[in-house]
Amino acid sequence: MRAYYDQDADLNLIKGKKVAIVGYGSQGHAHANNLKESGVEQLRVALRPGSKTAQKAEQAGHTVVTPEEAAEWADLVMVLVPDELQVSLYTEKLAPNMKEHAAIAFAHGFNIHYRLIEPRPDLDVFMIAPKAPGHTVRNEYTRGAGTPALIAVEQNPSGQAHDVALAYAAGLGCARAGVLETTFREETETDLFGEQSVLCGGISQLVRAGYETLVEAGYQPEMAYFECLHEVKLIVDLMYEGGLRNVRYSISNTAEFGDYTRGQRVIDEGVKERMKGVLEDIQSGRFAKEWVLECQAGQPQFKAERRRWAEHEIEQVGEKLRAMMPWMKEGKLTQE
Ligand code: NAD
Ligand code: MG
Ligand code: MG
Ligand code: MG
Ligand code: MG
Ligand code: MG
């Protein structure tokens, strides 16, 4: 895989452009603020009229406009609204107003890869996808570092899409850490697979099952919470710094022996078989179709699951325990 760094990017390619950031959430606030501090002077944030977030963006010194106004004005429109709202945003607000030969960019390939959005042929279409939550993209930039990012080009009538995407990534601070080249297909499918089977779906179920096993066996819920949820971070930090080997180096020999002999009893080959099924749903478009239909129906299953998980005892126990550890609040990603 080819990695690009600051010396490979020409920041002037993005500094010279009128850049509109649509959405000011997790990614949006990071993109707008990082690009501005990197010298992109002609920058506007686009939000729906009356949006509560507009105040936050204005307080940070941004000019806030509507998506239609942004589309008419911009050379480059970065779409950072939730994936499930992008189709109507593009068809109703952006496509009818964007200048001829402008560029449209995304931070995730979902809508382009599954052809839910089919951009006008005159537009450059590319992706800059930081491999981190927006708050990390912002915090790393502020301390002079960066998060890695992926770039990909889908449509390139100008012939400049790749270089502009790389310049944009550099403006986000991502070229300090490394920018990797991929395709919309690869980014979309690996992103969905990772979050469904390991990062979000996998770990939530693992934590829940471990917690319930201990509590059902009569152990105190607080003990179960510490062992099966709280300590996950300590292990993941070691993993992040030096891989699985670093975890094994740091844990006791007793823990390491249990890891080798019991881990595969819990996560056996059947798990991998089922992961292949999850991947097939992604590759075939079955998952995408299900999510689109769920959204069209007003997200009934999605909302019910959210409620069910929020009511799980592990959340109440966690809230109580975290209140006893006030230092954890520092630097916390608050839910606003
Ligand atoms: P978010 O939910 O945090 O923020 C969405 C923003 O869009 C909000 O400011 C909201 O007010 C605004 N918005 C909603 N509808 C709008 C409309 N019709 N017009 C204008 N503004 C509107 O979203 P997010 O998590 O930052 O995700 C944005 C994109 O970034 C998605 O494509 C996502 O897949 C991608 N992404 C997100 C992360 C992440 O860290 N959350 C990481 C990588 C990629
Ligand atoms: Mg969210
Ligand atoms: Mg991801
Ligand atoms: Mg994702
Ligand atoms: Mg322990
Ligand atoms: Mg050891």
UniProtKB/TrEMBL annotation:
Start and end residues of each KARI C-terminal knotted domain: 183-328
InterPro entries referenced in this protein's UniProt entry, alphabetically: 6-PGluconate_DH-like_C_sf, KARI, KARI_C, KARI_N, KARI_prok, NAD(P)-bd_dom_sf
Chemical reaction(s) catalysed: (2R,3R)-2,3-dihydroxy-3-methylpentanoate + NADP(+) = (S)-2-ethyl-2-hydroxy-3-oxobutanoate + NADPH + H(+); (2R)-2,3-dihydroxy-3-methylbutanoate + NADP(+) = (2S)-2-acetolactate + NADPH + H(+)
Entry EC no(s): 1.1.1.86
Binding residues annotated for substrate, in chain numbering: S252
GO terms assigned for molecular function: isomerase activity; ketol-acid reductoisomerase activity; magnesium ion binding; NADP binding
Family according to the record: Belongs to the ketol-acid reductoisomerase family.
Lineage, broadest ranks: Bacteria, Pseudomonadati, Pseudomonadota, Alphaproteobacteria, Rhodospirillales
EC primary class: oxidoreductase
Active-site residue list: H108
Sequence ranges assigned to domain KARI N-terminal Rossmann in this UniProt record: 1-182
UniProt pathway: Amino-acid biosynthesis; L-isoleucine biosynthesis; L-isoleucine from 2-oxobutanoate: step 2/4; Amino-acid biosynthesis; L-valine biosynthesis; L-valine from pyruvate: step 2/4
Residue positions binding Mg(2+) 2: D191, E227, E231
GO BP field: isoleucine biosynthetic process; L-valine biosynthetic process
Protein's name according to its UniProt entry: Ketol-acid reductoisomerase (NADP(+))
HAMAP family per record: IlvC (MF_00435)
Cofactors demanded by this protein: Mg(2+)
Residues the entry annotates as binding NADP(+): Y24, G25, S26, Q27, R48, S51, T53, G134
Keywords attached to this entry: Amino-acid biosynthesis, Branched-chain amino acid biosynthesis, Isomerase, Magnesium, Metal-binding, NADP, Oxidoreductase
Binding annotation for Mg(2+) 1: D191, E195
Organism the protein comes from: Limimonas halophila
Cited function: Involved in the biosynthesis of branched-chain amino acids (BCAA). Catalyzes an alkyl-migration followed by a ketol-acid reduction of (S)-2-acetolactate (S2AL) to yield (R)-2,3-dihydroxy-isovalerate. In the isomerase reaction, S2AL is rearranged via a Mg-dependent methyl migration to produce 3-hydroxy-3-methyl-2-ketobutyrate (HMKB). In the reductase reaction, this 2-ketoacid undergoes a metal-dependent reduction by NADPH to yield (R)-2,3-dihydroxy-isovalerate.
UniProt remark on cofactor binding: Binds 2 magnesium ions per subunit.
